[in-house]
Amino acid sequence: MISKAKVKFMKSLQLKKYRKQEQRFLVEGAKSVAELLASDFEVTQVVGTAAFLNSLSPTVTAEQIEATEAELAALGEFQSNNTALAIARMKPNRLLEVSEKEFAIVLDDIRDPGNLGTIIRTADWYGIHKIIASSETADFYNPKVITATMGSFTRVEICYTQLPEYLAIAKHTVWGAYLDGSNVHTTDFGEGGLILIGNESRGIAPELQHFVTQKVTIPRYGKAESLNAAIATAVICDNIRRMSGM
């Protein structure tokens, strides 16, 4: 049985205000919790069914609390989660260094948590391990973001910063996603650089445009007005890896 105090604390972590205050976040679902426990995040509590807790390695030092499937479904943000939930400490927000022969994704005001989570998962798939995000971008520790990553949040680092200041001192090629750039299918992306993805509805902010080294576009063959930010990121990443042969 989970105490009312623990239930209240876990529920509070669904809100950014309390996540920031406590410097902790929730992870829901057996797969994501297993990925979390295998990562370098500090896990403080694991709540799970008896079967899930019994499957854990003896080396897991976090407090373990047994719960029923009904209790777990009521605890988290997603009723479909009826196996496991964990609480972990946030990592400090530190500026990420991107090497000369490395690709990183830069996100300008990506507000939708599902989009951010999918972009993180996509980055992990294509071996891109760093994301630099504007301060207006959705919170990495939002439960919807964490769930959408399907565990990739443990392998992709993210930092939040003021993008104009960051790009002003960046020494990398900046590839900006636009509707009127060079064809992404024939662009030579070289061995590294920053992939700048703009807001879902407004695109890349005007104050960032002069930092863009080269505009790239995904050719349109139909009549759709635009692509979802996460889909556009996936197409660009796929072409980067295809062209580089990496």
In short, what is this structure?
The protein has 246 residues and is α/β, with parallel strands linked by helices.
Q: What do you see in this structure?
A:
The chain is of the alpha/beta class and 246 residues long. The protein has 2 domains: 86 residues, Ribosomal protein L30/S12 (60s Ribosomal Protein L30, Chain: A), CATH 3.30.1330.30; 142 residues, Alpha/beta knot (3-Layer(aba) Sandwich). The protein contains 9 helices and 10 strands. A 6-stranded parallel beta sheet has the order 7-6-5-9-8-10. It has a 4-stranded mixed beta sheet with strand order 1-4-2-3. Strand 2, helix 4 and strand 3 form a beta-alpha-beta unit. The N and C termini lie far apart (50 Å). The mean pLDDT is 93.
Q: Which percent range fits the helix content?
A: 25-40%
The low-confidence runs, each spanning 5 or more residues with pLDDT under 50, are: none
CATH architecture of the largest domain: 3-Layer(aba) Sandwich
| C-alpha termini separation | 50 Å
Query: Proportion of β residues?
Result: 15-25%
The whole-number mean of residue pLDDT values reads: 93
What count of structural domains? Answer: 2
The strands making up the biggest β-sheet line up spatially as 7-6-5-9-8-10
What's the alpha carbon Rg, rounded to whole Å? 20 Å
CATH topology of the largest domain: Alpha/beta knot
